[in-house]
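Appendix B. Raw example, untouched.
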Amino acid sequence: MSLDRRQLLLSGAAAGLATAAPGLALAASGDAAANAFFDKTCVRMLDEAPEFATSLGLDTGANAWRKSKLSDASWAGVEAKHRFCEEGLKSLKALPDVGLSPAVKLNKDVVAYAMELGLEAKPFAFGENNFQSAMSEASTPYVVSQQGGSYSGAAEFLDSQHNIATAADCDAYLARMHGVAVALDQETERVKRDAGLGVIAPDFIMSNMLGQMGGMLAVPAADARFVSSLAGRAKAKGIAGDWSGQATKIVANEIYPALTRQYETLKGLQPKSTHDAGVWRFKDGEAYYGWLLKAGTNTGMTAEEIHQTGLEQNKAIESRMDAILKANGLTQGSVGDRMIALGNDPRFLFPDDDAGRAQIIAYLNELIGEVRPKLASQFNLKLKAPVDVKRVPPDIQDGAGQGYMNTGSLDGSRPSTYYINLKSTKNWPKFSLPSLTYHETIPGHAWQGAYLTESGQLPLIRVLLSGFNAYVEGWALYAEQLGDEMGMYQTDWAGQLGYLQAQRFRAIRLVVDTGLHAKRWTREQAIDWAVANSGRTRQAMTSEIDRYCGTPGQACGYKVGHNEINRLRDHAKQALGPKFDIRGFNDTVVKTGAVPISVLSAQIDALIAAGGKG
């Protein structure tokens, strides 16, 4: 369905579907029945996750009511997600494959996989383990962590995604601020519930999030980002009203008290927090990690298979790096030692101050500008893929990832945003930045996301279910490879080393993630192994390892997905011979949209059957 139909679907008539009976009576047949089910499912998903509606720009007109709402963060909200999957699968099973077009059959398979994955999380009744978390790279044993929870995400969400153009938008913002306080208390109750089940964050995660919360509470309410964002944007738009005063009262009287209650609850649990890093320590920990790996890789690979793949690919990439280092006179020590030395070379470092941070932002924009003209060699697709480059907000940088992307809105009103963590510029020697940029922007996440937002070719259900981790992150890692194949490093040997270091880092992730959660490695063992093999700073690797402790399995999706895309490319090359066109292959992967990585092979087989014309 096109964007216009998406907006029509989500108008008053279709919104009534949300109040219909939970199960959809599939009286129609074939594609019509399937599409009716998908339409109803879209409405329900957006009603239950209004933040997602905002991120896609689907909170306007008849759907503007969503703009004042937040998701239910209570345990009852998690149980509702399980019921959503149960009801959805029942309806899908009542819909026979006979009579479905290939495109609709693919959509059915994708929706079924997502719902089955969500339902398989039901036995793990703690943390964030459900349909929504599996579709947003956010499955975790901990409701609140150094990188998760309302305390770390709510202000940034409101600042960067809640549009302010009218007084009604400001009122909706204030309503959501009230909702933040509610969500904080809901999360706090779940933290207490999980603690009763023996699920408490490790001491290093506990101290990190308590430090971040303490820092936030030390900021005067009038200076909180909740307040400055609303007041500043309302003023810029000339919207009259005491927005600052109203927002300050909500922060002082509702948000800060709720955050204090959460802080005190965690502080009270801190003595029970241990240093054990892996989920093996929980009841049914092995089965739980198996589900997390399925959510992260969308395959049935075991922890041992993933671990061995990481070890093998780490060695293979190390050999390539060794050759380049030797060719440039760097011969002493391990590859990791030499990369550490290169990362400390003043030639490649930016000043570790605000001026240096500004230089990095400028350099990232320069890289994006340089790669755009090269895209025609890899794609027939013509996408705009606008990107804003921003620093990770300092108030959440201690727990945030090193770099990430927020995809733009469907209506084009908000571009994709590329965030980079600039807590220390020493984590970013210049040669490390091109590969990261191609991963996060173009031809990586921003390019793949732009197809969703610009083409109007995928139905809304597929846009909403665009979080299959191995596809999304596998594509972005493959995009780093395309940067090399487009010749971006022809005169930049250090940049090519940075690219290979990034590839090796993803192989390292397979080793340390499974090491932590299946082989019972300590946090320090994982950090030491990652530093020695990656050649990146201990600070950066500590942040990364802590991330894998907070969201187990997610980091395994990158290399697993990348491996599968390359396997399919080799298969297409062999089958098509001289008819193989890299542009047709790349276009097909992007146009398929996010799918379970195991489903992608059928689309490449169709490309082969069509003689390589994607």
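End of appendix B.
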